[in-house]
Predict the structure.
Amino acid sequence: MINETSPLLDFVTNELSKAGFTITADIDRVEGLDFLITAPTGRTSELQLRSINLHEEESIKIQKLDYGQVAPHRFLGLVTIIDNTPRAFYIIPSATFTTADNEVFFNHPMEMMPHLSHWEIKVYTAAVPKLAQYEISNFYKV
C-alpha cells in the first residue's frame, strides 16, 4: 500500500476529485485492495495503487497473490513518475490482465510455483498510445 500522506496519493486524490470521485482507504485490509473509489453516481470500485518511476524502471510486476481476484469492479491504478513528480494516472481494469496483449500487458503464470505468478506492465514510448485508453479522463465515464 502507498503511504497515505505521500505526494503520490495527493496526486491521485486530486485527479479523482476533478471528476467528482471520492477515494477512501480500505480499512478492512482486503487482499489486493488499497482504496475504494466512489463515482458521483454512487458506484463503488476497488483500486490497488501502484507507481512506476520511469527513470529507474521500464516495467512493473504485479504478483497475482497480492492483487487478489480479477473482477469487473476491481482496478489497478498506475501512476507514472518522471523527475520525482507524478505525471499520469491510469486506471486499468483487472480483466486487462487476463487478456494480456504481450506488448504492454503480460501474463507470467508459474504453474510449478504459483506464488511466483505475476502480471507485468511495460511502459515505454510506443506503449503510451495503448496506455492512453486507460487515462483517468476515460474512467470518468464509469
Q: What stands out?
A: The CA atoms of residues 86 and 107 lie 26 Å apart. The chain has a mean pLDDT of 86.
